[in-house]
């Protein structure tokens, strides 16, 4: 989905509409998905264990408006959150039985390997290095890496302009964007934090001149900036987001993929987008082609 031409003012106004969260809805107008009360799974599978437990622990991010955000009242909102709820509901687990685990980029593989979470939905780009440690279902969305700068910055027009501007660039430790931006900046000018909200603070105070990650994440930060930031709008990568599970858990991976297919077919995938990221990027994306589980 192309995000070109989105107006920051519209973004800010739209996000303001999405902040309410309480009760049986995770934000205004976003009802929790219906639970599959007839769920029945093969004994010994991850699905059967979770169904029998009646609860699931899901890793997500808590500082990314539109995708994974913990609100002031303790509720969780965003597209990742809604995708996770769809999977839980298909397991027969209602949203109020989900335990959310904050999962920054640098610990995503670790929490899966250690069994601290049952799966991770956290703007988690599928790549070969990560697949050495965990397995991915999906992808459920494809983003693109971009840059966020101050609204009055005219010098940074794309990644190629960073060296000429001697710009310091911020990203998150362990993230794919942090690796991919290295070809465009001097090592001394790359600043890394554990979460993107700290990058936004560094941009606001002038410690860095740009923040880089996937465009949809940047749009959320822009929407929360009171018009202080803007998107350069020159995406330079493709980032397929996957759902992380334990290495080799093929049956669970296939279950999640089927859940995504069902959600695309019955409209719940499009609704999840509309109720969250769709508030600033209205055109719901098509579900990407799902990869084989291994």
Structure report:
With 294 residues, the protein is α/β, with parallel strands linked by helices. Helix 3 crosses helix 9 and helix 3 (79-90) runs antiparallel to helix 10 (268-274). The model is unreliable at 1-29 (pLDDT under 50). The protein has 10 helices and 15 strands. The chain has helices at 8-16, 46-53, 79-90, 108-113, 128-131, 176-180, 196-204, 215-223, 250-266, 268-274, and strands at residues 25-27, 30-31, 56-60, 63-64, 68-70, 76-77, 98-102, 119-125, 134-143, 145-150, 169-172, 190-193, 210-214, 229-231, 239-246. It has 2 domains: 8-140 and 240-278, D-Maltodextrin-Binding Protein, domain 2 (3-Layer(aba) Sandwich), CATH 3.40.190; 145-231, D-Maltodextrin-Binding Protein, domain 2. The protein starts with 7 loop residues before the first helix and ends in a 20-residue tail after the last helix. It is globular and about 60 Å long. It has a 5-stranded mixed beta sheet. It has a 5-stranded mixed beta sheet with strand order 12-11-13-10-14. A 3-stranded antiparallel beta sheet has the order 4-5-6.
